[in-house]
């Protein structure tokens, strides 16, 4: 039995031992029928691969399939991946003004990595000696530490050389037609055994995580059934689509009021909702879309049921706000900085038409007034009239 | 951007029998001739040795007796028998546990083979 010298090698010793003990076989027959379906866009966040720097073989990173739905996302089997973690040897080095470009080889493939230079290094042109001179008053231990830190920073400035083992974490991007990793973290590894640790980790990671699905089998089956039915639009995506149609309608036509029946007659909406059987279902979807718009500040509920007023440039609430501001900006309290927007909201709510108006609606209206140069935003929350 | 070809990791004994392509081998430096730019790498376990042409990587850091990892292209001399590796990268890996390395390498190769098997099954 061979006893490893350092604690680092002990970790990879344990990994190697684990590997020999559990001979895991990849069961490829399981997901054969579902292999071509991808997780819908809204559920990508459930997958751990979305959030993590994925340790992968460079060969696989180059062969990743692009995702049409989300820009910057790539698929490995059914996992959405956009950040990777690679460890390899620098085989090509190129220095530019702002960045270093390295080609990294891990034994399975070669990929370019872009490491941006630190802006601080550009600015500080002081020598190590002059900085050390300045720190003469520090105790000996701190001076040694300081010189150590300065040396390592100087090394970082020079970049890595050919043959260095580097550890890079970053996002996958396409630069001039080729895939590359833009590093957010990069470091040179002095211990060659780290390569062994990575080589032992990767097959285990692949077998247990990447080649398996995150979501349980039943959920995946339901998803594939649903996507078959709705032909591309799954249940959760109807309301956002409706919202988009409504926004374009409001911007084109600029109606004063909008109601649920009115919305259901818009051509785009009828196409979207034609698969729904009952008009109740359709109305609930339209209602939810209108609620979302209300939250954003585009529409507000009027006194009558199911009728929504639309906030457009030139609507009646603008006149009301202008009157409030004309009245209040001359008062001593508001003369310097203007009215706080919450004060304006309170005043607007005093009128019977707009008693239940949301803050975001008033803000949208104030924004429109600002675009028309009728009010000035003096600070983040305060507004003032342009001409009294 | 022209990227150099990826060096597939191999043991020296395998490297002796490959025909062409880029490889990455690890071994102990037995001999280093600066003037003729030749070196000999030896596998400590199987004691198979491999000739390395170091024209691109001179001067070498590290001395005879250290472990080195070489990435380069395998070429056959005119004779056809002895392969020689034109080293692009020579990297000193003193302190690397070779037994562990070989084990990890074998596990990696086993995993790749199982991948190819599943691909074949579906085709």
From TrEMBL, chain B:
Gene3D superfamilies according to UniProt: Nucleic acid-binding proteins
Molecular function GO terms recorded: single-stranded DNA binding; telomerase inhibitor activity; telomeric DNA binding
Biological processes, Gene Ontology terms: negative regulation of telomere maintenance via telomerase
Annotated Gene Ontology cellular component terms: CST complex
InterPro entries: NA-bd_OB-fold, Ten1_animal_plant
Pfam families reported in the protein's UniProt record: Ten1_2
Highest taxon of the lineage: Eukaryota
Secretion signal span: none
UniProt-recorded name of the protein: CST complex subunit TEN1
Organism per entry: Magallana gigas (Pacific oyster)
